[in-house]
Amino acid sequence: MKKNSSLTAVVIGASGYAGSELCRLVARHPLLTLAGCFVSEGSVDAGTKLSVLYPKLRGVVDLPLQGLDSLSLKQIKATAQVVFIATEHEAAAQLAYQLYDNKRIIIDLSGAHRLAEAQDYVTHYGFSHPHPQLLSEAVYGLAEWHTGLLANANLIAVPGCYPTATLLALKPVQHLLASQPVIVNAVSGVTGAGRKPTHKTLGAELSLQGYGVFNHRHQPEIEQHGQTAVVFTPHLGAFKRGILATLYLQLAEGTSCQDVAEAYAVYQKHPCVRVGYQHTPAIQDVEHSGYCDIGWHRKGTQLIVFAAIDNLLKGAASQALQCLNLRFGEPQTTGVPL
Amino acid sequence: MKKNSSLTAVVIGASGYAGSELCRLVARHPLLTLAGCFVSEGSVDAGTKLSVLYPKLRGVVDLPLQGLDSLSLKQIKATAQVVFIATEHEAAAQLAYQLYDNKRIIIDLSGAHRLAEAQDYVTHYGFSHPHPQLLSEAVYGLAEWHTGLLANANLIAVPGCYPTATLLALKPVQHLLASQPVIVNAVSGVTGAGRKPTHKTLGAELSLQGYGVFNHRHQPEIEQHGQTAVVFTPHLGAFKRGILATLYLQLAEGTSCQDVAEAYAVYQKHPCVRVGYQHTPAIQDVEHSGYCDIGWHRKGTQLIVFAAIDNLLKGAASQALQCLNLRFGEPQTTGVPL
Amino acid sequence: MKKNSSLTAVVIGASGYAGSELCRLVARHPLLTLAGCFVSEGSVDAGTKLSVLYPKLRGVVDLPLQGLDSLSLKQIKATAQVVFIATEHEAAAQLAYQLYDNKRIIIDLSGAHRLAEAQDYVTHYGFSHPHPQLLSEAVYGLAEWHTGLLANANLIAVPGCYPTATLLALKPVQHLLASQPVIVNAVSGVTGAGRKPTHKTLGAELSLQGYGVFNHRHQPEIEQHGQTAVVFTPHLGAFKRGILATLYLQLAEGTSCQDVAEAYAVYQKHPCVRVGYQHTPAIQDVEHSGYCDIGWHRKGTQLIVFAAIDNLLKGAASQALQCLNLRFGEPQTTGVPL
Amino acid sequence: MKKNSSLTAVVIGASGYAGSELCRLVARHPLLTLAGCFVSEGSVDAGTKLSVLYPKLRGVVDLPLQGLDSLSLKQIKATAQVVFIATEHEAAAQLAYQLYDNKRIIIDLSGAHRLAEAQDYVTHYGFSHPHPQLLSEAVYGLAEWHTGLLANANLIAVPGCYPTATLLALKPVQHLLASQPVIVNAVSGVTGAGRKPTHKTLGAELSLQGYGVFNHRHQPEIEQHGQTAVVFTPHLGAFKRGILATLYLQLAEGTSCQDVAEAYAVYQKHPCVRVGYQHTPAIQDVEHSGYCDIGWHRKGTQLIVFAAIDNLLKGAASQALQCLNLRFGEPQTTGVPL
Question: Which chain C residues have a beta carbon less than 8 Å from that of A284?
Answer without folding.
Answer: 56
